[in-house]
Amino acid sequence: MRRNKIKKNEVDSLFEEATIEAARIKGKKLMEDAEKVAYFPSAEFNHRIQSLIESKTKKSDTFGFFNKAFLAYSKAAAWILITLILLFVSVPNVASARNWITRLVIDSNPKYVTYYFQENVIKQINQDSTLHEPFPEGIYYPSYLPKDMTLMQLIYNRSEIIYRYQDLSNNTLTVIVMGPGSSTNLDNESPEEKSKEYVNGIEADYRKKIGLGQLTWSDGIHVFIVSTTLSKEECLRIANGLTN
Amino acid sequence: MAVPAKPKVNTESDRLFLEMLYDSYKNLMFKQAWGYFQNQSDVEDVVQQSFVRLIMYLPTLKKLNRNTLAVYIVNVIRSCSIDLCRKRKIEKETNFSDFFEGYEETLEDDFDSDYVMDTFFSMQQLTNAISKLPEEDQFVLQAKYLQYWRDSEIAEVLGIKEDTVRTRLFRAKNRALQILAGGKNEEE
């Protein structure tokens, strides 16, 4: 039993509580009285009530159609949105990802470029190049490279191809293959070293100046130039390894 | 009688609840309706109208327990019966005389409700006092606190003005406090 000093502003809530409790007691008696006598509504009346319940609880077909249409539209819109987002995100990144992977592979494996040329699949490594098609067959490339030599730049412009390499000790290597009709000037001004060498049976001119050795020769069609800060022996090995 | 906004009744659980409502309370509904009318047709009309109205109050009904729901249903049956009687002008054959003007005079005008409210009493005592109230007072209190009907709805059911509803509610409470005070006096 609960006893409280009643305040006027609490009267409403007290009456609500008491009214509900009184209703509960009264309802119990009403239910007991009602259960004493069974009423059997007619089948027709029961059917009317059942129909009433069905009609009140049946979902509207019209609204159902619109709901379904709206749901389908929402799903379609969501899928289109997701697809567009994926496209916008992935498409620009495909090219950059491919370039990034290519650079990664080339950086980690200096001879990778050889594979590229052999397979004739690379289109463009150096961004300065305007080439937008695969290298033609028969292009020259160095099949031998000193250890740790990394391709830094590749320029191809149909008339000539230039490979620039560098190793961890900052030794540089430049291989230039010029196409038919090309010519070059040899620097005769006070070389530190000058000699005649043979590259694959072809006479070549080797000269060294300010630490940079340069081997130049021609097969009658192409002009080959190999410049490096490495030793003459290494320069000759690279030159002999030049193949197509 | 003013009806509330159409509730969202469209789920399987609502359908099952309504079927349970009819199965469990049809005896009560028919018993009450037979108390107001003498022919099967009127009784069935009132039960059907009451059921339609109960569906309108479905969200509230689902919150009530079995016994308070019985009182709610009885009140709706009564409201619909009053409606039907008004439409058919057969008031003389029914037992709604309590609901018409005139019974307020039974209240003692010099009754000091503040005195009762300032004293201690238990919820059980107040519940008993409400149970002893005349049917019409209980109806007003139940309509207000159990069924959460607006004053306008209660006014329409009883065929009175909204201001009168508030007066009746006030007097019903005072009567309950009067009974409470009488009970306490007897105890003392």
Query: How many domains, in number, for the residues of chain B?
Result: 2
Determine and state the CATH class of the domain at 109-243 in chain A: Alpha Beta
Strand percent estimate of chain B: under 5%
The major beta sheet of chain B can be summarized as: none
The secondary-structure class of chain A comes to alpha+beta
N-to-C SSE series of chain A? Answer: EHHHHEEEEEEEEHE
CATH superfamily placement of the domain at 109-243 in chain A: MucB/RseB, C-terminal domain
CATH architecture of the largest domain in chain B: Orthogonal Bundle
Distance between the termini of chain B: 45 Å
- What is the CATH class of the largest domain in chain B? Mainly Alpha
Q: How many strands in all of chain B?
A: 1
Unreliable spans of chain A are 1-5, 118-132
Q: Which percent range fits the helix content of chain A?
A: 40-55%
Largest sheet of chain A: 7 strands, antiparallel
Number of helices of chain A: 5
Number of strands of chain A: 10
Interface with most residues: A-B, 46 and 55 residues
Rg calculated over all Cα atoms of chain A: 45 Å
The CATH architecture name of the domain at 109-243 in chain A reads 2-Layer Sandwich
The strand order across the widest sheet of chain A is 3-4-5-9-8-7-6
Summarize the structure.
The complex is a heterodimer of chains A (244) and B (188). Chain A has 244 residues and is of the alpha+beta class.
Overview of this protein structure:
The complex is a heterodimer of chains A (244) and B (188). Chain A is built from five helices and ten strands, in the order βααααββββββββαβ. Chain A has a domain at 109-243: MucB/RseB, C-terminal domain (Phosphorylase Kinase, domain 1, 2-Layer Sandwich). The longest helix of chain A has 48 residues, at 61-108. In chain A, β7 and β8 (212-218) form a beta hairpin. In chain A, the strands form two sheets. In chain A, strands 3-4-5-9-8-7-6 form a seven-stranded antiparallel sheet. A two-stranded antiparallel ribbon of chain A has the order 2-10. Chain A is rod-shaped. Chain A has 244 residues and is α+β, with helices and mostly antiparallel strands. Chain B is mostly helical and 188 residues long. Chain B folds into two domains: 1-94, Orthogonal Bundle (Rna Polymerase Sigma Factor, Chain: A), CATH 1.10.1740; 96-188, Arc Repressor Mutant, subunit A, CATH 1.10.10.10. Chain B is 68% helix and 2% strand. Chain B has helices at 12-36, 40-56, 58-61, 66-88, 113-117, 123-131, 135-145, 151-158, 162-187; one strand at residues 120-122. Chain B is globular. Classes of the chains: A alpha+beta (244), B mainly alpha (188). The interface between A and B is large, with 46 and 55 residues.
